[in-house]
Amino acid sequence: MTTTIPDIKKTMEGKMDQSIAAFRTSLSKIRTGRASPGILDTVHVDYYGSMMPISQVANVSLLDARTISVQPWEKGMAAKIEKAIRESDLGLNPASMGDLIRVPVPPMSEERRKEMTKVVRHEGEAAKIAVRNLRRDANDHVKKLVKDKLASEDDQKRSEAEIQKITDRHIAEIDQLVAGKEQEIMAV
């Protein structure tokens, strides 16, 4: 089975979309001034000998803009969940109220906000590098087709222009996501 230029472009675009989806996921885990249940996704708790994400042993939701509530599904888990949140590197200080754990999200300092925007930019740059690597791979595949005489040089020029357009569109989307997240972080 020979691959064609449209196949190469379709595969590349699919992989670029996956890169952006992964970037969105990593952005959702980066803390902003507002509370978000997603920031607890990285915290794992000991559940009968295996480490589980908090979302799999409790109901995680928002009480208000600055408070996350964690409602364990089993009575004995509250202390373990509270300890796991306290010992995480998120700098959060949970408080138990019966079987409900309240996790106040403190406002971030100006210095911390700037630090977080640097993290966002770094993640954005990594996503752009992934997209550019996919562009390079796609162009290499097209060049190989031309070398094997399965496509003409005109096809190569046309496809390289189309591949660049697709790449530019994905890079612009990453830039948009970075700008939006920076705005979210800097909002007091």
Automatic annotation (TrEMBL):
The organism's place on the tree of life at top rank: Bacteria
Keyword Cell cycle included in the entry's annotation: no
CDD domains per record: RRF
Main localization category: cytoplasm
Alphabetized SUPFAM superfamilies for the sequence: Ribosome recycling factor, RRF
One function term, GO molecular function aspect: ribosomal large subunit binding
Annotated GO CC locations: cytosol
Domain Ribosome recycling factor span(s) in chain numbering: 24-186
GO BP terms, alphabetized: cytoplasmic translational termination
Function: Responsible for the release of ribosomes from messenger RNA at the termination of protein biosynthesis. May increase the efficiency of translation by recycling ribosomes from one round of translation to another.
UniProt name for this protein: Ribosome-recycling factor
